[in-house]
Amino acid sequence: MARKLTVGVLIAALAASTLSCTPTQQGATIGAVTGAGAGYALDRHHRTRGAAVGAVAGGIIGGVIGYTYEINKFCPNCGRRFHDSRVYCPYDGAPLQQVR
User: Fold this and answer.
1) Tens digit of pLDDT for each residue in 13-63?
2) Do residues 87 and 95 lie in contact, with contact meaning Cβ atoms separated by under 8 Å?
3) H/E stretch holding 81
4) Which of 63, 65, 64, 37 is CA-nearest to residue 51?
5) Longest dimension (CA), the chain
6) Which is nearest to 87 in space by CA: 77, 73, 76?
7) Side-chain half-sphere of 6: how many Cα atoms within 13 Å?
8) What global pTM score does this model have?
9) Domain map of the chain by residue range?
10) 48, 57, 85, 95: which one has the fewest Cβ atoms less than 10 Å from its Cβ?
C-alpha cells in the first residue's frame, strides 16, 4: 500500500512540474521528485529520511540546472552571458541581446 501511494505521489509531482512557470522552478520540482524517489529506494532502513534528504538535494541541484536555462542574454561587446532580467551589461553598459 505504501509503495503504491509513493509511486502515485511521485507521478503527481512530476505532472505538476510541467505546470511550473520558469525553468528554475521546473528543474527544482523535477530534481526534488527524482531525489525523493532515489532517497526512498536507496535508504532501506529509514525511507522517510532518505526521501527527505534526496528531495532537498535534488531540488537544489535541479533548481541550479534550471537556472542556467534562464541565462539567455549576452553582451555584444564583451560576450558575457546574463540572466533574462538584466537589460544592460554591468561591465560596459551595452544593451543586452537575446541569445538565438
Assistant:
1) 666 655 657 777 788 888 888 888 888 888 778 888 888 888 888 888 888
2) yes
3) strand 81-82
4) 37
5) 60
6) 73
7) 15
8) 0.57
9) 2-69, 71-100
10) 85
Which three-class secondary structure state does DSSP give residue 14?
helix
- What's the CA gap between 33 and 83, in Å, rounded? 26
What cell does 71 get? 541565462
Q: SS in 3 state form for the chain?
A: CHHHHHHHHHHHHHHHHCCCCCHHHHHHHHHHHHHHHHHHHHCCCCHHHHHHHHHHHHHHHHHHHHHHCCCCEECCCCCCEECCCCCECCCCCCECEECC
Q: How far apart are CA 42 and CA 73, in angstroms?
A: 40
Centre a 10 Å sphere on the Cβ of residue 76 and count the other Cβ atoms it contains.
11
